[in-house]
Write a structure and sequence with these properties.
This protein has 585 residues and is an alpha/beta fold. The chain is 42% helix and 12% strand.
């Protein structure tokens, strides 16, 4: 290795923050960067040098990792920082007005602020994340946020309130995945067990690993993160690998604008995720699991840490779980640091291992060679919390929920111009119109203009298409996608052109830059949209539309991962389904 250190030494506080992590290798790089950023508020060259010496990482590579994440700063800044979300749901709910109100205020109040991509609290938009470095660091999600509240929170003068429950259906008897959220104390293992918790793990231990995989396969459970891959097939392929060491990764980095269901599940029912991961580990033969959690979720981090610690103390994690000799499994939380691309399964591996969070080429697939080069299962939070339901009701009974090809209950995140935003649980096959009715439709006196399904990587549907059954196959046949469950409503007052520009800017910012089609294509896409929306055609608007389509198709056909492959989807659907840019040609 070429270890070249600049002439800079860490402060005592920086040294203590890093040394508190104990011994470790390169895979501790992300936690070490978090430790310094949390304690000091930024990462100095001296701190980076100390991290590199401790972990034996080349400084240039460590710099490349530290500069990859939006939540870290390599330049000195005040210890108090506010991230103001100006992404899709917040944009249509006053985010720009909030940003304008903060302009000129922050410096005098002793903090800095900047615009941020989605913070994952779309149901309470507009949102802001207030951060104050220290020992310990303090973080608070403010939603809905006002300029006055942001200033008070940044100054440490406001009370930390419990987040309101974002489940409008709370307490309804037909709920399955959401039945405990807002009803059962999320920090009490006894309350969780009294409501049926750990019955599924007990059943799993009786069935054995092969029996668990069979039940999950029979249930027809498909991944809920957007790819919709059959979960049983993924588990079976991993369990069959001849390599003894295997890993389980829970993808809790839901960074898709408009998505917040995984946050609600973790905050409201964390023991369900711990139990589900334990069942999955038993089925595939994994002894170690990671939860890769969004760095912008302070409350989710708190309650999940508590759930893992309590489960370990009570014998539900660790050695000989629930008295089963030889069954050992434990969970580590690995905090993300603001990178949308780390929602891609192989980018998560690189991030955990201490590299830049860039996707890997496939094959080999994760079930063969994943985290640390070992067979790995990656499932998101919603997918996993279906597993206890399957193990208590049975795979066949679960399959009868929903439709034949899209089985089970599904969570949808409703936000934007909607009366009752939040997470809704409905069976697959419910129509979009029925879901919108549950949420009360658009505000009184407004008319529905468009619905964005699947988030920034999804597509638009028109108001006359709300009869669409919400299933994987019906969405595909209609030329759209359910994606991660985003249903973002736009009324007749929404600025659709500005909305599309924000989508383009999002993908430009979040591209990891590894492959040329995405690195260059996302920039060209945004530039072209600016010309069209701003009425400044390169030659004619028609030519710009042709260029936009060509760039989008190249990204879709040749990008390494799903970011570049889907960056054109929503814009294409706005042109073709909504006629959004026709009057500008």
């Amino acid at each position: 290795m070429d270890l070249r250190f600049l002439n800079a030494e860490p402060t005592d506080a920086e040294r203590v923050a890093v040394d508190a992590l104990g011994a470790g290798g390169r895979d501790q790089l992300l936690p070490a960067l978090h430790a310094v950023n949390d304690r000091i508020g930024w990462i100095s060259q001296g701190a980076l040098n100390h991290i590199c010496r401790r972990l034996n990482v080349p400084p240039a590579e460590a710099y490349g990792v530290a500069s990859f994440y939006a939540l870290f700063s390599l330049k000195e800044r005040p210890p108090r920082v506010v991230h103001v979300c100006t992404d899709l749901a917040c944009r249509v709910n006053g985010a720009e007005a909030l940003a304008d109100a903060l302009t000129g205020t922050a410096g005098a109040a002793g903090f800095t602020w900047h615009r941020s991509p989605c913070l994952g609290v779309c149901e309470r938009a507009p949102a802001a994340l207030a951060f104050e470095a220290g020992d310990p660091a303090e973080e608070r999600l403010l939603a809905p946020a006002t300029a006055g509240e942001v200033v008070r929170a940044a100054a440490g003068e406001s009370e930390v309130d419990e987040a309101p429950v974002s489940v409008p259906q709370q307490g309804e008897p037909e709920l399955r995945l959401l039945r405990r959220v807002g009803v059962v104390d999320p920090e009490s293992l006894d309350a969780y067990r009294a409501s049926g918790g750990y019955a599924a793990l007990r059943n799993a231990l009786l069935l054995g690993p092969a029996g668990v995989i069979r039940e999950v396969t029979d249930s027809g459970l498909m991944g809920r993160g957007g790819a919709a891959f059959p979960t049983g097939r993924k588990w079976d392929a991993t369990a069959r690998q001849p390599v003894r060491t295997r890993y389980l990764v829970c993808n809790a980095d839901e960074s898709e604008p408009g998505t917040f269901k995984d946050r609600v599940l973790i905050e409201g029912d964390p023991f369900a995720l711990v139990e589900a991961m334990t069942i999955a580990a038993f089925a595939i033969g994994a002894q170690k699991g990671y939860v890769y959690l969004r760095g912008e979720y302070p409350r989710a981090l708190k309650v999940l840490r508590n759930a893992i610690d309590v489960a370990r103390e009570r014998g539900f994690l660790g050695e000989d779980i629930m008295g089963r000799r030889g069954f050992s499994f434990d969970i580590e939380i690995r905090r993300g640091a603001g990178a949308y691309i780390c929602g891609e399964e192989t980018a998560i591996f690189n991030s955990i291992e201490g590299f830049r969070g860039e996707p890997r080429t496939k094959p080999p697939f994760p079930v063969e060679k994943g985290l640390f080069g070992k067979p790995t299962v990656v499932n998101n939070v919603e997918t996993l919390v279906n597993v206890p339901l399957i193990l208590t009701e049975g795979g066949e009974a679960y399959r009868r929920i929903g439709t034949g090809r899209s089985s089970g209950p599904k969570l949808f995140c409703l936000s934007g111009n909607v009366r009752r935003p939040g997470v809704y649980e409905v069976p697959f096959g419910t129509t979009l119109a029925e879901l919108l009715d549950l949420a009360g439709g658009v505000p009184e006196g407004r008319e529905l203009r468009a619905i964005l399904l699947g988030g920034a990587a999804g597509g638009f549907v028109r108001p006359d298409e709300t009869g669409l059954p919400l299933t994987m196959e019906d969405a595909r046949a209609a030329g759209t996608t359910l994606g991660s469950g985003v249903v973002l409503m736009l009324d007749d007052q929404a600025d659709l052109g500005g909305f599309l520009l924000r989508i383009a800017a999002f993908f430009r910012d979040e591209s990891c830059g590894q492959c040329v089609p995405c690195r260059i294509g996302t920039v060209r896409q945004e530039e072209t949209l600016h010309r069209i929306v701003g009425g400044r055609g390169l030659s004619t608007g028609g030519d710009d539309l042709v260029l936009l389509r060509e760039v989008g198709q190249v990204m879709r056909d040749s990008s390494i991962c799903g970011l570049g492959q889907t960056a054109w989807n929503a814009i294409e659907s706005a042109i073709d389904r909504l006629g959004a840019l026709e009057d500008r040609s």
